[in-house]
Design brief:
The complex is a heterodimer of chains A (177) and B (673). Chain A is of the alpha/beta class and 177 residues long. Chain A contains six helices and five strands. Chain A has helices at 9-18, 54-70, 93-104, 122-125, 143-152, 158-171, and strands at 22-28, 31-38, 41-48, 80-86, 110-115. The longest helix of chain A is centred in the middle third of the chain and has 17 residues, at 54-70. By secondary structure, chain B is α+β, with helices and mostly antiparallel strands. Chain B has helices at 40-52, 56-62, 121-129, 134-144, 154-157, 159-169, 173-221, 225-240, 255-287, 293-327, 341-405, 421-444, 448-513, 551-554, 557-572, 594-607, 620-629, 668-672, and strands spanning 5-12, 21-24, 29-34, 82-89, 95-102, 107-113, 116-118, 146-147, 246-248, 409-411, 522-530, 533-542, 547-549, 582-586, 612-617, 639-648, 651-657. The longest helix of chain B has 66 residues, at 448-513. Classes of the chains: A alpha/beta (177), B alpha+beta (673).
Chain lengths: 177, 673
């Protein structure tokens, strides 16, 4: 996967903005950070090319976010999320362990580490921060009509299927003559 | 407010709630914390009981107990009916109160608006909560309304149950019912055919029995004095008409014996016919004989000898006489002495004429021999034919004798002469005909029982034919019904498959938020047909290694809880018309790690926008986390937190926890500055 196919901060900005976040870019702890705020979340996203010093950067950004949130409203400290987008995938067990360790450290902020996220998978990568999607509308308008169409596409004779459906519609039981 | 909301619940004499206790629920999130046994699950039970009239797990437990052990009614107020009241606040701000009173076996739901008693409380409750009918409400509440802790993993256990829940979500009850009904019809027709085949077997058995009885009745009928007498008279009459020198060694005494005699005479007639044919052949062969072969052979030998002599001598004399005439001169060609040539020529000429006459006689002798040889050949052929005809006659005669000894009919020697063979055939055929007539007459005398049994046999045969036709028609119906059954399930499966494809992202929607497994990061569902039952089986996938499996056998209890919650909530969020305005999650966090709990808290922040959430937990840390994470962040939202601190015989001690700040200041501008 080429670098141009990976999600960039600008993609995140667009995604969070579409999800109702107020978004801005700022430098925090010597790192360019995309900040997003909604009534329920205060998000700091940053990019990293590799896994070196990732843990330190996450810690620094989280510390800065905690300092800012704690300075004003006690409730806001529970809304902090730090999201690290690493362009390189986790290449070995050490990097996988590092990712798990960062995410398992739940003190002060929820941390998410996303590695080599393609643009089309950005929605999934940010899902914990996004609103629920609209219901998919699974209901079948007329189940028996749909059933009739399916049965007509199958080997059973159409007249047998139709007669059974007609009987079922009026008696709730299938008849085969 | 766009949806109805559970505003208040009151419990009295219900389970562990002996004294009346009210719980304000009028919030978009309600968190109930309590140690085990403090009564928080009873709130879920109360809600289930009020809405559905039953608490399935308690009903199961009470099945084998005495009625006095009613699990719904408080043991500290056994004389009073359990009572649960639910106040519902409607989108138009009207408030309806629903109250159920009773116990496990009997209870009644009433509805009020203020002081006014409303009719048809069950339908009113269903209509107020959702767009479905009362009879569908219990299923909806259990499928995506209330997730009890004991039911959490059950969401994954029953593939058939999961299929049913899915079918409920997408409105496939009718399709499932159709498929089930098609199966019932097919099974019913198979049973019907089996019964028809048993009936046919019974009919055949009855017919065979009737046939046996008929045979016996025919036999007995001729043994009755009257019938026997008439049979004997008929037989005697028959015997008196037998030709001369033909007689019976024993009289047939039954219809069967009479029929057997008829068959014997028929066989005798056939044997006599063979004998008569052989006799004719002998006559013909004898007429074809042209003389004794041995005499002809002697005459031929003599003629051949004569012809041989004539043939051998005649040509030599003719040659010698001819050569001498050519050589004849005045002197002897041998000694050279003068000869009388004229005299010698005359002699030689006479000699030549004599030799030529003998050669003609030799040719005549050869013709006579050839003629004799032809006559001899003809005589030999005729002799062979005659011998063969004699042999056949002897065989036929032997067979006739053999048959005669095994029958009751005896024939005198005069009948056995070849020239009377044809007459014997005619006589036997006439006898057979007479026996038939006698048998038919005897049968007519056999009586009513025989007639009745004959009718039974005949009717049975007709009934068997009808039954067989019915079975053939039934088999065709079975074939059509089985095809319909098979294809109805396939059709239902295809419809569910399409729904699963659409629903898959909704499972993932929840699963992804609950911090999934490190490798099994994708959750879906696949359909499976097991023992002709459509089932939906959960499936987790590792997309990088292309590995998949059933979470029930792959994951830890904590991850299983995540999967179960994903299914329950995925379906709850897509329940369409059947959607309930609330979701009650009874201690859903058991066995979950802290990351999943955080993910769940974040998910609840989103869920509250869609449903009124009631969550219980026994874990103080999680309760504390929830009180902060689920605190209101917007002016119109409200979070209620209760602590069930302890339980006494009167019920739980319930303490409301002070709600954290309900608004937050936007910080982004400050960070920016």
């Amino acid at each position: 996967m080429t670098a141009s196919q990976l999600a960039q901060l600008s993609d995140l900005e667009e995604q969070l903005s579409a999800a109702g976040y107020d978004v801005r870019r700022r430098d925090l702890a010597k790192t360019e950070v995309l900040l997003g705020e909604s009534p329920y979340a205060l998000v700091a996203c940053f990019e990293a090319d590799g896994w070196e010093k990732l843990e330190e950067t996450v810690f620094d950004v989280q510390t800065e976010m905690t300092r800012i949130a704690a300075g004003d409203s006690a409730g806001r400290v529970w809304d902090i999320y730090v999201v690290a987008f690493v362009h390189a995938p986790a290449a070995d067990a050490d990097q996988t362990a590092l990712r798990e360790a960062i995410e398992a450290d739940t003190r002060y902020a929820r941390k998410l580490v996303r590695a080599a996220v393609p643009r089309e998978a950005l929605d999934r990568a940010l899902r914990p921060l996004l609103p629920l999607r609209d219901p998919v509308g699974l209901e079948v308008a007329d189940p028996l009509d749909e059933l009739r169409e399916e049965l007509h596409a199958l080997p059973v004779a159409d007249e047998v299927a139709d007669a059974a459906l007609v009987a079922f519609a009026s008696t709730d039981s299938v008849e085969v003559s | 407010m766009e949806r109805p909301r559970l505003a208040e619940v009151e419990l009295e004499a219900f389970r562990g709630f002996a004294k009346p206790q009210r719980l304000d629920l009028d919030a978009d999130v309600v968190v109930i914390r309590g140690d085990n046994g403090t009564g928080k699950s009873s709130v879920a039970d109360a809600l289930l009981w009020l809405v559905t009239g039953t608490v399935p797990r308690l009903r199961e437990r009470a099945k084998s107990l005495r009625k006095a052990d009613d699990p719904i009614v408080s043991r500290y107020r056994p004389e009073d009916p359990a009572r649960v009241r639910l106040a519902l606040r409607l989108p138009d701000e009207r408030r309806l109160d629903f109250e159920r009173k009773g116990g496990t076996d009997r209870s009644q739901l009433t509805a009020r608006e203020g002081d006014t008693l409303l009719e048809n409380a069950d339908e009113l409750l269903a209509d107020s909560l959702t767009g479905i009918h009362a009879h569908q409400l219990a299923q909806a509440v259990e499928s995506w309304g209330v997730l009890r802790q004991d039911k959490l993993l059950a969401a994954l256990e029953g593939g058939e149950a999961l299929h049913k829940r899915l079918a409920d979500v997408i409105g496939l009850e009718r399709v499932t019912l159709f498929a089930d009904s098609a199966k019932k019809t097919a099974d019913g027709l198979v049973r019907e055919r089996r019964e028809a085949e048993q009936t046919l077997g019974a009919l055949r058995h009855r017919r065979d029995q009737a046939q046996e009885q008929l045979t016996e009745a025919e036999r007995q009928a001729v043994q009755t004095p009257d019938a026997s007498h008439r049979l004997m008279a008929l037989v005697e009459s028959f015997a008196s008409t037998l030709p001369e020198d033909v007689h019976l060694t024993r009289r047939p005494d039954s219809l069967e014996a009479l029929a057997a005699l008829g068959r014997d005479i028929g066989e005798l007639a056939a044997a006599a016919r063979t004998l008569a044919d052989a006799a004719k052949e002998v006559t013909v062969a004898r007429a074809a004989s042209v003389g004794a072969v041995d005499e002809l052979e002697e005459e031929l030998v003599s003629l051949e000898a004569k012809a041989h002599q004539a043939v051998r001598r005649a040509p030599m004399q003719v040659q010698l006489a001819g050569a001498a005439l050519e050589l004849l001169g005045d002197d002897c060609p041998v000694c050279g002495q003068p000869i009388d040539a004229a005299s010698v020529r005359q002699h030689l000429t006479e000699l030549l004429q004599s030799a030529q006459a003998e050669a003609g006689a030799a040719a005549d002798a050869q013709r006579v021999v050839a003629d004799m040889q032809f006559r001899l050949q003809a005589a030999r052929t005729a002799q062979t034919r005659l011998q063969a005809a004699h042999q056949r006659y002897a065989n036929a005669s032997g067979q006739l004798e053999g048959r005669l000894t095994s029958t009751a009919l005896r024939v005198g020697p005069a009948w056995k002469r070849p020239e009377r063979a044809e007459a014997l055939v005619v006589a036997l055929e006439q006898l057979q005909s007479r026996v038939r007539e006698v048998h038919a007459e005897a049968q007519r005398n056999a009586g009513e029982q025989v007639a009745r049994l004959s009718a039974v046999v005949e009717a049975s045969n007709a009934e068997i034919a009808r039954a067989q036709t019915a079975i053939d028609e039934l088999s065709d119906r079975v074939k059509r019904a089985q095809e319909l059954d098979r294809d109805a399930h396939r059709a239902a499966r295809r419809i569910v498959d399409r729904a699963l494809q659409r629903l898959g992202p909704s499972f993932a929607e929840v699963f992804d938020r609950l911090a999934p497994h490190p490798t099994f990061t994708e959750l879906g569902a696949v359909q499976d047909i097991y023992y002709k039952k459509n089932q939906v089986v959960p499936e987790i996938r590792d997309p990088q290694r292309n590995v998949s499996g059933n979470p029930s056998v792959l994951l830890s209890e904590g991850h299983l809880s995540v999967v179960a919650l994903s299914y329950f909530l995925g379906m709850a969020l897509n329940a369409g018309d059947g959607a309930l305005p609330f979701i009650f999650l009874d201690d859903p966090l058991q066995s979950m790690d802290v990351i999943s709990v955080l993910g769940f808290a974040d998910l609840c922040r989103r869920l509250r926008e869609r449903r009124q959430l009631i969550v219980t937990t026994h874990d103080r840390r999680f309760a504390s986390l929830f009180s902060r994470k689920l605190a209101s962040r917007e002016p119109r939202s409200r979070t209620l937190i209760y602590d069930f601190t302890t339980w006494t015989e009167t019920g739980p001690e319930i303490k409301p926890v002070k709600e954290p700040p309900t608004t937050v200041e936007p910080l982004l501008s400050r960070i920016a500055s």
